[in-house]
Design brief:
With about 60 residues, the chain is mainly alpha-helical. Helix content is about 55%, strand content about 0%. The longest helix has 14 residues. The protein is globular. About 5% of the residues are buried.
């Protein structure tokens, strides 16, 4: 992608939005389009970084 075709998006997700995205992406992980793997991993890491292991287990169950 050339510089003139680049798109920049700045957005601050709320904790609720991160949680909803993480659950959605976990449920649809086999359907995530190629190229969005880093985005999905970043969302999941945000959840892991903000919760204890027990909270993560409850979050995803």
């Amino acid at each position: 992608m050339t510089e003139e075709n680049q798109v920049k998006l700045t957005y601050s997700f709320s904790a609720k939005e991160i949680g909803l995205l993480a659950k959605f992406l976990r449920e649809k992980e086999t359907e995530i389009p190629h190229g969005l793997e880093n985005f999905a991993k970043s969302i999941e890491n945000s959840v892991y970084d903000s919760l204890t292991l027990d909270e993560v287990k409850r979050f995803y169950s």
